Amino acid sequence: MATGKVCIDGEIVDTAEARVPVLDRGFLYGDSVFEVYRTYGGVPFAEKEHLERLSRSADCLMISMPVSIDALASEVRATLAAAGEGEWYVRVMITRGTGPLTYDPTTASSPLRVIIVAPITPYPRELYEHGASVVLLNASRPTDDARAAGAKASNYLANLLAVHEAKQKGAQEAIVLGRRGQLLEGASSNLFVVKDGVIRTPKPEPGILVGITRATVLEVCAREGLTVEETELHPPDLYDADEAFITSSIREVMPVVVADGRSIGDGTPGPLTKRLRRGYLGAVAAGTGAAV
After folding, report:
1. How much is the pTM?
2. Phi/psi at 252 (5° precision)
3. What is the DSSP letter of 31?
4. Half-sphere exposure of residue 97, counting CA atoms within 13 Å on the CB side?
5. How confident is the model at residue 285 (pLDDT cuts 50, 70, 90)?
6. What are the φ and ψ backbone dihedral angles of 193, each rounded to 5 degrees?
C-alpha cells in the first residue's frame, strides 16, 4: 500500500521517519505558510500558481523563502518520484524556523521547508451527484486581520473548530461569516452562488483566501461567456440562490444543495454547477495531460 514520502530541507524520507525540531515555530505557534494541491496522472495541477502564492504568503508574514520557487518545484518532483505511481496530495510548508521560546519572530533563524506527498483521499462520489450541505458560522481567524490578509497561514485552529461544528450539525463544510455578517468563504474552500444565470462570489477582502481553484473557475466562466460578479454576499444570497457550489484543490467544484438546513434551488446540483465542474476538469486535463 502506498504511504507517500516527506522531503525536509531537501532530504526525502519515509513518512513515518519524518521529524521537525520541537523548537520550530511552525510546530510551536503555527508560524508558517503552506499550499495544498494534487496530481492528476501523477502530474501536479497549477503547481506554479500555488508556489507563487506560497511565496506571496511568506512575504506577507515576513518569512524568508529558503529556496527559489523553481527549486521547490524540483523538490516536489523528486518527492513524487520517490513516492512512486499513484495520485497524490501535495502539501508544501515553509516555517519561520527555530528559535527561543518567545513570541518575537525576529529571534527565529533558518526557515524550514517541508513537502508532504500522501495518497489522495477523494471526496465521496455522492457529494457530486447529490450535493453537499453547509452551515454558516462565525469564526475569528488570524487571516481576518488586515495584516495577514491573503496569506495561507498554517494557524488553522478556528477553521478546524468550524469544520467540527459543521460535522456535528450534519454538514460537510462551514461557511465563515465576516464582522458585518457577510459571507466570506468555507473553512477550506471558496463559495459561489448562482441566481438568474449570474454567478456570484464574495469579493476579495480580509478573511478571504483567493483560491487557485477559484481563479481557474473564473477563467472557465470567462472562456464560456458566463456572467460573473465579485461582490459582497450575505446569508439570504445563499439561501435564495438557484444553485451554489464550493471550490478547492481537492474538492474541485462541489455542488451545495443545503445551507443551514434550507434547500438551495430545487435541492439538487444545478446545470451551471455541473457545467463549471466539467469546465474545470477540462482545464485540469489541458494542464496535466491526464484523462479526468
Report:
1. 0.96
2. 65, -115
3. -
4. 16
5. very high
6. -130, 155
pLDDT recorded at residue 149: 85
How far is residue 150's CA from residue 53's CA, in Å, rounded to a whole number? Answer: 9
- Would you kindly state where each structural domain of the chain is located, as residue ranges? 5-119, 125-288
**C-beta separation of 115 from 28 below 8 A:** no
- How large is the angle between the packed helices 212-223 and 271-288, nearest 10 degrees? 110
Quick: pLDDT tens for 121-141: 999 999 999 999 999 999 888
What is the rounded CA–CA span in Å between residue 102 and residue 187? 29
Q: What cell does 209 get?
A: 483566501
**What fold is seen in the domain 125-288?**
D-amino Acid Aminotransferase; Chain A, domain 2 (3.20.10)
Q: Quote the cell numbers at residue 52.
A: 507563487
**Could you tell me whether strands 262-263 and 173-177 are parallel, antiparallel, or unpaired per DSSP bridges?**
unpaired
> From residue 34, how far is each of 26, 58, 116, 222 by CA, in Å?
10, 9, 11, 29
The closest alpha carbon to 135, from 175, 167, 163, belongs to: 175
- Grouping H, G, I as helix, E, B as strand and the rest as coil, residue 242 is coil
5-119: CATH topology: D-amino Acid Aminotransferase; Chain A, domain 1 (3.30.470)
